[in-house]
Amino acid sequence: MKLRRLFILASLCLPMGMAQADDNDDFGVWTEISVEKHLTQTLDLGFEGEIRTGNNSSTIDRLSGGLKLSYKPSKYFKFGACYAFYGDYSAEKESKHSYFEDGELASYPLTPGYWKPNHRFYLEATATKKFWKWLRISVRERYQFNHEAETTVDRTEFEREEYFTPTGPVRGDWESYNVPKINDCESQQRLRTRLKFEYDKKGVDWNPFVSVELYNSLDKAMHLHKVRTGIGTEYKINKQHKVGMAYLYSCHLDNNPNEHKHALNISYGFDF
After folding, report:
1. CATH tag for 2-86+117-149+187-271 (out of 3.40.50.720, 2.40.160.40, 3.90.1510.10, 3.30.70.2190)
2. Which secondary structure element, helix H or strand E, spans residue 155, and what is its range?
3. Single pTM value for the model
């Protein structure tokens, strides 16, 4: 029943994401690289790196790198543990403005762009089954813990005074001063469930796929936080090298339901 619901979500969300494009949408390019070393027949150690762009691919939004240990006791099951460090970029932002009685601007704060350091840990389990010698179906369950470190940013306050004289009010020149803005540390827990359908036929180097992933927040009461769908393909250059390309659509269901993320995902993998 759970697989059936995920499949229905993938069928509905993916075309909806392709069709929706408004002022609240954002587009980015996510570039990934992975290197995996086979330690034994069942144990692998890998590195994963990623660069993400946002704001319609005009700025770099995320830089990340992590180490992952994988254990595959059989062809049906795989387990993994990973630690990653990443930085999320918060763009320059103007906060709440204040105005004089006639509507002219009186003051406003300006927060410069800054990087937010994050630590991520996750544990995952993947079950895979092949049907009709060409269709591979997998379900991945991942527990994810994110910790955003505390950061301090010098926010600039711009304001001008209004003086009252016998001839009427007079407004002074703009003045500015810095006020430290402290972003407290924050932790988040997610339970991510991904269902993936992949064309995998012996002797064929192309592996097209479609997937849907549910992000359930475990903070306070458990609830559905985000849905991400994807469609793409991987190409096996040889036994060690592979490349991939996919379209990803993400919709947030609690923070900003009107904001949708579109991404072109480009990946390269090296196994040895």
Report:
1. 2.40.160.40
2. strand 151-159
3. 0.78
